[in-house]
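HUMAN: Spend a minute on the protein record below and explain its fold to me.
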Amino acid sequence: MLKDILKILENDARTTAKQIASMTGKSADEVTKLIKKAEKEQTIIKYKTIVNWEKVGDEQVGALIEVRIAPQRDVGFDAIAERIYRFPQARSVYLLSGTYDLLVLVAGKTMHEVAGFVSQKLAPIEGVQGTVTHFMLKRYKEDGEILGGEEGTKRQPVIL
């Protein structure tokens, strides 16, 4: 039951308890209680809005930064990951398998600002052995939502 409610909210956080109740067959009061409990227990962490900043003329520069680190005794990767995720520029931090250990999603106003974050704050952290920065040039889809609308096919058809 809770999983159904969570899936509905994950798809559209603005769905009301009454709408969820009609979708799940439960009462609106029961749905509200389950949502409040999930919020209290931090099963629901945050409600989020996806904004296409290009449409309001306030673009942000995003970068994916691969970070190679030396795990620390008794805490592994967690202590360094915590130092990194405490920076406001770090929007998301993930532990990875493969060549790099962490993936950090960073946002800033300019490429210079992001580069400064990497060189002045991220790279000097003890245990960070190397970084590779990938600047995001264009967002097509985020959190399952296509940005910019359905524009259709731009290529001309080939007629044989």
Notes: The chain has a mean pLDDT of 90. The two ends are 54 Å apart (CA to CA). Helices lie at 2-11, 17-24, 28-40, 78-85, 111-122. The first strand starts at residue 61 and ends at 69.
